[in-house]
Task: structure prediction
Amino acid sequence: MNDIKTKFISSNKMLSINFQINKRMIIFFSTFWFVCMLFTILILWVAISPELYIWKNVIQVFRGNGGSTDVNGGVCTSLSWIILSAPSIIYYSIVSLYFINKTLIKEISNDEISFWITLSFSRKKIITQKLLFNFICFLITYLPVFLMVLIYGSICKDANKYIGLLIVDGFNFALFMTFLIIIYFILGLLFSEKGVILNIIVSLMLFYIFLTFIINLLPWDSGSNYEWAKYFRYISIQSLFVPTLNPSSIDPSIVDIDKTRIGRFVSPYKNRFNNWELLAMCISDFFQVVIIILCIKMTVNIFDKMDL
Result:
């Protein structure tokens, strides 16, 4: 048993050393984002709605001028706006970019990676452990936040109906981020001697993600001045992540509201996740898994041919 343990520790020596060197930044990134998301959940819980719901529990407050204000107490709002959306994608990408620069590009440019090559590590093992390190760093940052969301969701009034969809969305988001991380990693290898180019490319990608996220927030319902904005859902990078908890406009057939009165009216939102979106989710997941596998093989081949 001791021999097996010793062999395991020896074979993962590079991984453990990377964690020892970067443990402070890993703890910082994980703690910072957890606190931010905890604050988001608390605002949702305390300031917006005293009752807990996973799905949208919308209260429309109609004023004398005919206007209205939507107050949303569903956890799917924080998921679609922050936790499983562009802000989180950007944050996790920045974390990934930081560790790729430090554990891959820096070691290659300073010829530090040759230290591992001179040992009994194959090139395949070196690069796969570098990639594995970046993926584990993402999980350390992501899982505490998502576990917090699951705990919140488990005590919601509609948990028995929507908790399964919450888990599916969490898994699909992790898959999508894995897809992005492997893309960043390959770019890091291709531009290992010019790390600035990698940072520029990823920055442009993140800007595009943020821009399309803002555009998708525009009210693009039929008759709106921003109806053109709905097409950006299909050309955004984050469209590869297809959420099941996907809110849309209020179904007018559910609630008949007299807008001439001043008062509060509960108006349930409908879930627009249908069979077509289920098919889109399955195709997207399959596509991402295939690309991830191909990219891992490509990463090994690229590193094997590098002159180090």
Q: What stands out?
A: The longest helix spans residues 13-48. The chain has nine helices and five strands. The first strand starts at residue 58 and ends at 62.
